[in-house]
Design goal:
Strand content: 15-25%
CATH architecture of one domain: 2-Layer Sandwich
Number of strands: 6
CATH class of one domain: Alpha Beta
Helix content: 25-40%
CATH superfamily of one domain: Sporulation related repeat
Largest sheet: 6 strands, antiparallel
Order of helices and strands: HHHEHEHEEHEHE
Structural class: alpha+beta
Radius of gyration: 63 Å
Length: 274
């Protein structure tokens, strides 16, 4: 009888304890087991902020190091050497992707600058254009050339121009002697003569002006054969001439007469200038 009563009491006690654990306040925190003034330990997962869930369709697989998937030992969460009141340093595994063992990481490509070629040295040449009849013509040609030339200048020269040949008798001491010589020429049937009254050679007798030197020589010989001291000389006049000096690139190919709008000018090399 007594054993049966004890068995029934134990069963009822077990049922009561189970009901209390299942429906009673067994899940409530009764109290803090730590001493007062000692901070509570927190897990690493509790200190990290919650991440936003990414849809499976938008998530891309990320390379994970084998070391990152290894669980953290419990001893690293709370070290026995932790000092109360100070945060505990927790070592975490690096999540940087590393190449597999045995595979070399390719070296980054080195961009080398292309060699800079030195600029080619440009050469120049100087040309003299002319002669022009006046300074106005040379300046008009200078404007017509425009930006084709690098530098230019106008200059004036004195040129001796031949205007043929003349045959004459030298000047006499007086006008009477010159007239007497003229009468002698007339007596020898010499025509086309003229007594020069004034000028550089006054009292001389002109016997003709010829463009060709051979014609002048023939006239002189005829008069000399008659016994007169005839002479011949070139008629030279000094006139100003105008030139245009230009500096252009050595590779420039220019029709100077057409470009300067002066078909009678010449183009000849000349010394360069600054």
């Amino acid at each position: 009888m007594l054993p049966r009563l004890i068995f029934v009491l134990l069963v009822a006690l077990n049922i009561a304890v189970a009901a209390w654990l299942l429906f009673g306040g067994g899940g409530h925190f009764i109290g803090d087991v730590a001493d007062e003034g000692v901070p509570r330990l927190k897990l690493v997962a509790e200190t990290q902020p919650a991440t936003t869930a990414v849809p499976a369709s938008a998530a891309e697989p990320l390379p994970v190091s084998p070391m990152a998937s290894a669980p953290i030992p419990a001893s690293s969460a709370a070290s026995p050497s932790a000092v109360p009141g100070k945060p505990t340093m927790v070592a975490t595994a690096s999540t940087t992707a590393r190449p597999p063992i045995g595979q070399q990481t390719p070296a980054p490509a080195v961009l080398r600058p292309s060699p800079i070629e030195p600029p080619q040295r440009r050469t120049f040449r100087c040309v003299a254009l002319g002669p022009f009849a006046s300074d106005v013509d040379s300046r008009a040609a200078r404007s017509a050339l425009g930006g084709l030339v690098i530098r230019s200048r106008t200059r004036q020269e004195t040129a001796s121009v031949s205007h043929g040949w003349r045959v004459f008798l030298p000047p006499m001491d007086s006008r009477e002697k010159a007239n007497d010589m003229a009468r002698r020429l007339q007596a020898k049937n010499v025509k086309d003569y003229f007594v020069v009254p004034a000028g550089p050679e006054p009292n001389s007798i002109a016997l003709g002006v010829f463009n060709a030197q051979e014609n002048a020589r023939k006239r002189r010989d005829e008069v000399v054969a008659l016994g007169f001291p005839a002479r011949m000389a070139e008629r030279v006049e000094t006139t100003p001439s105008y030139w245009l000096d230009v500096v252009v690139g050595d590779d420039a190919k220019v029709n100077w007469q057409a470009r300067a709008r002066a078909p009678k000018i010449q183009a000849r090399p000349t010394g360069c200038f600054q």
